[in-house]
Write a structure and sequence with these properties.
Blueprint: E1 2-6, H1 12-22, E2 26-31, E3 45-47, E4 63-68, H2 74-83, E5 88-94, H3 131-146, E6 150-155, E7 157-159, H4 167-177, E8 179-183, E9 190-191, E10 193-195, H5 196-209, E11 213-217, E12 224-225, H6 226-237, E13 241-245, H7 270-274, H8 282-295
Parallel strand pairs: 1-2, 1-4, 2-3, 4-5, 5-6, 6-11, 7-10, 8-13
Antiparallel strand pairs: 9-12
Length: 304
């Protein structure tokens, strides 16, 4: 297949490109060329800037699918669809689970039919409050313009090597030290993280199958709590760790400050699994993240 990936050299995009290459697909990467310029030297690069609407490098190409990792505001979707108009088959938008109106949502509704937030159309400033509503607006542009040629993937928190957020890496590193780990989180709080490689395999599989629809990309397959996450990460590191749970606070890695928002970590991935998303055990993800973290020299984490 001929695939155009918008992004592709940071984290989620990097995993998608790696998976697609392993499957023998013909790729083109569109980006500013500033992140990971040394990666994937065998893949053609189309240089442009979404912030300024520069898509000139996409003139003339044709693709079976466009995989959009870097659309954060609805203008991004409109502009790229205009730029490749008539020269692609399927458009796959990497959205987010943050589109859902989680507060007070009953668990049973947390499949792809759950209520979304209102779309944000009045600003392009991305904040904790506007991120989800802007992604809702991105989804709406894609589906209104393309109907069943659009595929929407809504990841939860993504874990794996090369993660720039360090949210899951914090837990892996803390567990690897063993002993008592103090954390601003409830021990019984549900946690969902999806392995970046599982997410990538899902996205490429959706392109290969030319499959429409919306898919929650969440994991692991078995429900876990914060206490379970620490235990599993410690076992992967060959240590024993005990969670000293504390008062949840906003911004602590994987923590939900308000229990009313627990449903955000109880979403259903049944549709994604049925479409072919793998189910990597959390212990494998933890071991791989630990190996990567050590290989990069255990730098100061971006979260605490």
């Amino acid at each position: 297949m001929r695939l155009l990936v918008l992004g592709g050299t940071s984290f989620v995009g990097r995993a998608i490109v790696s998976d697609a290459l392993s499957r023998g697909h013909d790729l083109t990467l569109f980006s500013r060329g500033k992140t990971g310029p040394e990666l994937f030297p065998e893949v053609p690069r189309a240089i442009g800037d979404r912030d300024t609407g520069d898509y000139a490098s996409l003139a003339g190409g044709e693709w079976d699918a466009v995989i959009d990792v870097t659309a954060y505001v609805p203008r991004h979707v409109d502009e790229v669809l205009d730029a490749v108009d008539g020269r692609f088959g399927r458009y796959i938008l990497i959205s987010t689970g943050s589109v859902y109106d989680h507060a007070g949502a009953p668990e049973a509704s947390m499949d792809e039919s759950a209520a979304r937030l209102a779309p944000e159309l009045g600003t392009e400033e991305i904040t904790g409050e506007t991120y989800g509503p802007l992604k809702v607006a991105c989804e709406d542009v894609a589906t209104s313009r393309l109907a069943d040629r659009a595929t929407i993937v809504r990841p939860g928190i993504v874990a794996g090597p090369f993660d720039p957020t360090d949210r899951f890496t914090w837990w892996v590193r803390a567990a690897s030290r063993g002993g008592t780990v103090e954390a601003a989180i409830r021990a019984d709080q549900p946690v969902q993280v999806v392995d970046s490689r599982d997410l990538a395999r899902l996205v490429v599989r959706l392109a290969e199958d030319d499959r429409p629809g919306t898919f929650n990309a969440v994991g692991p397959a078995e429900p876990v709590t914060a206490a379970d996450v620490l235990r599993i990460c410690a076992a992967a590191a060959g240590t024993t760790a005990e969670l000293a749970a504390g008062t949840p606070r906003k911004g602590f890695p994987l923590a939900v400050a308000d229990p009313a928002w627990d449903p955000m970590f109880r979403r259903s991935a049944a549709r994604a699994y049925a479409a072919g998303m793998p189910q990597t055990p959390l212990a494998v993800t933890a071991a791989d993240v630990l190996a990567w973290d050590r290989a990069r020299g255990l730098p100061e984490l971006t979260v605490s």
